[in-house]
């Protein structure tokens, strides 16, 4: 006996597909998020331990230089302020200890490990070699406990499991709701079509032949088939079979497209699944008006559709979901901006935009503690690094939120204001109605490692780092606070000296430039791939990961309009490549631009200063690159050799 499976309905397939989508996403989240967070936490602990070791090594250098064991011991005993600290050893060059804090906790294996920072079991270690100005050598070895990190890892896993369960439950609920509300009108249309195909002529009155969309076309086709039913019954049945076959093919094609999109989403991280969900919501919102028209088939225009309220609920739910996705996307972009880092480059910065980015990042900390009030006056731009400045504002906002107890947001306020001072400087104030500070605490606010937060919550480096950033920008941070009356932190910055207009829209692009031949030389393949993707439609782009290979391509010809060359590469650096190109092909060397992530040696810095007009910083500003490309391509000096077109 052959077991035949009953064909599943469109509703069942739709429900199954949506549930699978959410299930796959929840599984991906459960597998990826805890591992990612645990890895970041371990790397962060290693970096933090090494940073503390380097600071302590700098502090104990005089003790090692003069053999002052008491001074070294005092510095090591400061580790007692950290509950995570296990031991500290200050060793002379011969390996004998000059000073020690809890030396009995030192594992033997840690003394032989040459790495600067490493993890053994449940402990993290950092060692720093010390070379004093007096010629003394020694080593500082610190050890910290990972118990708190492991607890955080367990909580992260539990949180990820809870979120994954919530995602899956939401997916199941959404699948049944959408499956029911979307498929119901389609079933009604299908029943009408079946009645017409079976010869029920009265069903023709339920078709709206006045429509000018796909539904009207289908209704007219069925009407014509009714008129010719008795004369060409066989032809009508054949057409119905063809229509049903086409419908099945469309369903299969739609399922393949959805599965392909799902596979691509699982292969990527958070942004791609978020984009897929957003696209599907927008697709559904575009399709709902048409489905509404389908559902009104047979309903007179002067009568409301029985499912109108349900359609409105679906439309509202999808609109809210789209808004939520937009908020999540904005948060992800902000986090990415903060985590991507920067090269310290300063440029005219709009404070309102920077403040909004920081407010968005801190909103989750603020919303349960206080109302956020914006009091923005018109102020000029400031010369700053936007990412670092946003880091300062974010730290001040979070500190303001932590100064207020959670649960009384209606009685508390955090006010963010901007104004131009009488001295011409821009002032950004963040005021809270929190607990305030006593003068003793206020006097030590910017001292490194000083914090009033519980152990494990703060490192005491936030305000110290903020003060360093603002001081480097030529500004200062002013503090006003009284116990029980809140605090006000005011960031004072010099206004940008140059006149600044509105920022150009990123999506605008310069006028068309003639097709050019470009060679990208970078040992990192992804950089070349990115530039090929960005410029490949407009120009002919070739990519080489080795300078020797690039020189071979230049010799083979035809000549290139532009050569984008990385400075720091193995085997042959960008400087050596440029020197060789100047020797063998000086005409081609005129079209070289250097892309660099920073200068790490005196030779490299001198080279960049000498060829400043040829340098582009990483990450590459594509607008700036296109402007440089236009200047090179339109330069008469480069028109002496042919370029590739078409």
TrEMBL record:
EC number, as in UniProt: 2.7.13.3
Keyword NAD part of the UniProt annotation: no
Gene3D superfamilies xrefs: 1.10.287.130, 3.40.50.2300, 6.10.340.10, Histidine kinase-like ATPase, C-terminal domain
Cellular localization per UniProt: Membrane
SUPFAM superfamilies (alphabetical): ATPase domain of HSP90 chaperone/DNA topoisomerase II/histidine kinase (SSF55874), CheY-like (SSF52172), HAMP domain-like (SSF158472), Homodimeric domain of signal transducing histidine kinase (SSF47384)
Domain Response regulatory: 517-633
Protein name per Swiss-Prot or TrEMBL: histidine kinase
Species the sequence originates in: Cystobacter fuscus
